[in-house]
Design goal:
By secondary structure, this protein is mainly β. The protein is built from two helices and 27 strands. The protein has one domain.
Length: 342
């Protein structure tokens, strides 16, 4: 009699235990796991579960389903990674989760042939040791978000350069891509810290908030019209851009897309050349239908200690909302117009 009364209890216990083990081993329909783990003491031959983590991000990515999450358990170096699907790579306070970039290589390379991937990077330290090429390079993705990261000592920091040549042949030609960077430091870069220069693509948007960009040899943040077929819209807010060759630069030409940059609540200081510069090429009389232009709006921001504070050339526009602190530059410069706050 006791056997029959105990059996339901035992069955229920097994079900509870199985449910408790589920999240770490949950699998997608393709057999890949939904959540994987990496650890400094892991092994890439493992299954990348919490009890048996992998050692590198690339191994964990191969075993994780699209849209899944790679969680970092402890401090360590986890290797470079090429991302070709939607993924979240998360370090939530485990210590310094680093990617040491070898000579001439890329720390995180995002290239999704279907332009559907949404990639989220949080809590990573990408270190180039003055030999690595680029911290994060985006060639194709629907959206890439970078939060609470540090990118240092490379030739290039973040290069956002989506292009349609990376779109699979069965996807729409008008691909679109977005970049978000929040609470992130990009410093000690030998070239441009954040470079946005799209290829022949449809819609490109970027938003940078709470970004610290300093001690970079060339530009802090540069937006180039590239070959995009739509205006490039970029917002920069609550950020510090200091000790760079140039601070924030928007460039385009008669054969490139219009560039629009909004700067609010930010400090642009101590640039070796210009704090904020908008530049464009004069209109081509043989191509009157092309109206590429570069525009920067600036509001509630500080422009201080630069060789030149603000500058607009080639018919570009630099508009002030009239509520900035612009002083202490060798030449303050003059905005081309005053914008009206609404």
């Amino acid at each position: 009699m006791s056997k029959f009364t105990l059996f339901p209890f035992a069955a229920a216990t097994l079900l509870v235990l199985a449910a408790g083990a589920g999240p770490a081993r949950a699998q997608a329909p393709d057999g890949l796991i939904i959540r994987s783990f990496v650890s400094a003491g892991g092994n890439d031959a493992h299954g990348c579960t919490r009890p048996a983590p992998c050692r590198t991000l690339s191994a964990a990515l191969a075993k994780t389903a699209a849209g899944g999450t790679i969680s970092i358990i402890d401090a360590g170096g986890y290797g470079t990674v090429t991302i070709d699907k939607a993924i979240n790579i998360i370090n939530d306070g485990a210590g310094t989760a680093s990617i040491l970039v070898p000579q001439g290589e890329i720390g995180v390379f995002v290239k999704d042939p279907f332009y559907e991937a949404r990639v989220y990077l949080r809590g990573l330290t990408i270190e180039g040791a003055n030999v690595g090429s680029t911290g994060v390079l985006v060639n194709s993705a629907r959206a890439v978000s970078i939060e609470n990261c540090v990118i240092r000592n490379l030739f290039g920091g973040i290069l956002f350069s989506p292009e349609t040549s990376n779109v699979a042949s069965n996807k729409p030609f008008m691909a679109q891509s977005a970049l978000t960077v929040a609470n992130t430091t990009i410093a000690d870069i030998g070239g441009v810290a954040v470079l946005i220069v799209p290829g022949d693509i449809g819609v490109v948007k970027a938003a940078l908030r709470g970004v610290r960009v300093f001690n970079n040899l060339e530009m802090g943040i540069q937006v180039i019209g590239g070959a995009s077929r739509q205006p490039i819209d970029v917002t920069i807010s609550d950020s510090l851009v200091t000790q760079n060759g140039q601070g924030i630069v928007a460039n385009t030409s008669t054969t490139q897309a219009p560039v629009k940059v909004m700067v609010t609540g930010s400090t642009v200081a101590h640039s070796f050349f210009t704090g904020l510069q908008a530049s464009a090429s004069p209109p081509d009389p043989d191509k009157p239908d092309i109206k590429s232009i570069a525009e920067i709006w600036i509001g509630q921001s500080t422009v201080f200690g630069n060789t030149t504070g603000v500058e607009a050339t080639g018919g570009a526009f630099l508009r002030s909302f009239g509520d900035n602190y612009m002083a202490g530059n060798q030449t303050d410069g003059t905005p081309t117009a005053t914008a009206t706050r609404k």
